[in-house]
Specification:
12 helices
Length: 353
Amino acid sequence: MTPGKGTAKARSKSAKKHRAGKIKAPSQQPATLQIEFDDNKLLPLLFGSHNAHLAKIEQKLDVSLNSRGNTVSISGPEDQAEAAYDVLTSLYNQAKKGREIDAAEVDGALRMKISGNGNGKAINADDFAVKTQKRQIGPRSPQQAVYLEAIDKADLVFGLGPAGTGKTYLAVAKAVESLINGEIDRIILSRPAVEAGEQLGFLPGDMREKVDPYLRPLYDALHDMLPENQVAKKMENGEIEIAPLAFMRGRTLADAFVILDEAQNTTAVQMKMFLTRLGENASMVITGDLSQVDLPSGVRSGLRDAVEILDGVKGVSFVRFTEADVVRHPLVARIVKAYDKKVRGNQYDKPAD
């Protein structure tokens, strides 16, 4: 709860106790806190258009926020008021560092504060921030923080879970950061060219034109983190390679950050082939969603196979996401939850063994 320099002038007695580190039971006693911000120019970013960000914090935390000049007064149950204080402080500190404060950032700050790390403590997103040339990227859910930490510590990480949880985006961010810092010599991004029953032979164009649509999400992530001219230059000189999974056979991937995306659409043979490409000073991240397998009926997913076979192997980490980690439109999380409930109830789409 320590605010950024100059962000807070006064707070309630209850908040001071919390800052002092005293352990206390959850409190619903009414409290009023105040934050005085030192840079009025940042307040439109912090508050949002027509105070939309403040309204979202009020709704999520069941508090009342009143702004007057450069001061915000927070009223509500003690714990919720302190949570709102922390969220506003975190967002303001991000704004001071030049980061854009949009609805997604507000959602992320709320999610991090509300969920914590399972021990009743909030997670500081800045502790896990990934720095690229175009932006600083931080986790927007506690499980994303776990994921980023796992990538730092393990040579092989599996990111498992539904779409919209940041599995691929965060992995690409870590890869770009590693390349910029000189920790690796190249980034290799790969995907199996299998999607929703489509077959390459029916697509127009040469091989590159056929596979590019499958690799587009990887291009998009790169352009979000590096200037466009640098992406092109690094791809031209081999520092960044984006290729279909089939192109990985027979290679040894050393001094590299290797990402396999949409891995649920690999066969068991393909997955074993890819895993055994790992060379010296290399890190590998494999992402996928086992609820969206597009392989032909009767073909077992290589991702499912690997999760079962490698469970407990030293140096391998598994991070599982749920609908609570979805950072896209809020409706996406509800869609994922509805489908999961349907699958559990009827097993109508059980993945092939």
